[in-house]
Amino acid sequence: HRHPIRQWRWEGFRNTALRLSKELNAKVYLAYGPSEVPLMGTLRKGVEDKIQLLPPTTLRQRGALFQRADVLITNDSGAMHVAVAVSTPTSS
Question: pLDDT by residue (tens digit) across 61-75?
Answer without folding.
Answer: 999 999 999 999 888
